[in-house]
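Technical note accompanying the year-one report. For the benefit of new consortium partners, we illustrate the data format agreed upon in the data management plan: each record pairs a sequence with a structure-token string. No post-processing was applied to the example shown here.
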Amino acid sequence: MNDNKSELILMDRTMSNYPLVSVGTGLALETMFMPEAGYFDPTRTIEHKLKKHEYRNVYINIYTILRNIVSAISSTEDKHSFLDNNKSASAIVSTFLEEYTEIERLLLANDFLPILYIVDYSKNKVITNTDRNIQNAVNDTLSSKQNIFINKAVKFIKKEYYSSFMESLKVNVLKCETKINKEYLNIVINKLKTGDNKLPLVGNSKNLIISHFAIDLLNLKYLSNLTLLETHTGRLVNYKNFNKKYPELTNMDFTTVVPFVEKMYYVFGDSNLIKPVAAKYRKVLYNIFIKEGVNSTTKGVAVDSIIKKHIKDLDPEFWDLYKNLTTSY
């Protein structure tokens, strides 16, 4: 398959009603403002449409935009052919540059501040135990064909283009934050350039985040009033509901009992990056939390104190893993 075939496959992907924007990302944007061509699916119910100036900062995960470009390739055969071809890299990079430039233009035109970020998820590793039943580490899905392809594209974009995106961000920030300390702004830009998992706060506004990685939501600690805007569904997820990202267990409602705090995230995991510990350990914690009245808003310090209070109820191997967890947020 040649470069032209790769380009044709991307040109034939399912598009939203925003020019140049793939369908998954476009459905998220529809929650923010309507396309000039009308909604992609007029029968779809948008649960909560944003009011003008309700949010300003929009933190956008580059991996999510690239994933949505690939997932918009409707033919499974075409998708495999595209991902297997080493020459497809240049095609997806040029497609990303076109798409993100349009996303940036649309957001700025509607009084949002787009902040493109890149995180090196390979650094987000948790201490593991030799017992595979309670191992907690980066999930194998990151090694899938699609993610390997996207990782390579991200590295190239970061090397060749990310600095220019950061210069544009600096200009855009100065337009809407006339009183911002320029030295602080340089710190923000440099922090984004390093790929730090802790996202810097820009100004003092409410913040949206577009990402399919639950670990990014731990930035709630740094970004005030953080709300997740899901692609494909366009749903807005309040911080109190971030724990819906935990994989479910039968007859256990984690969403009302287990808070989304860092150590609990490393224990209960998610569907694409962090493997949860064995079900038997999560069940024990769940029952402890029920007994102690823990809920989705309980702070991390309180959760830690409750777990220590119940050391005798915990498996020694789980306790050994838990006490050695290192936090990075």
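Partners are asked to follow this layout when depositing records. Residues 127-143 have pLDDT under 50 and may be disordered.
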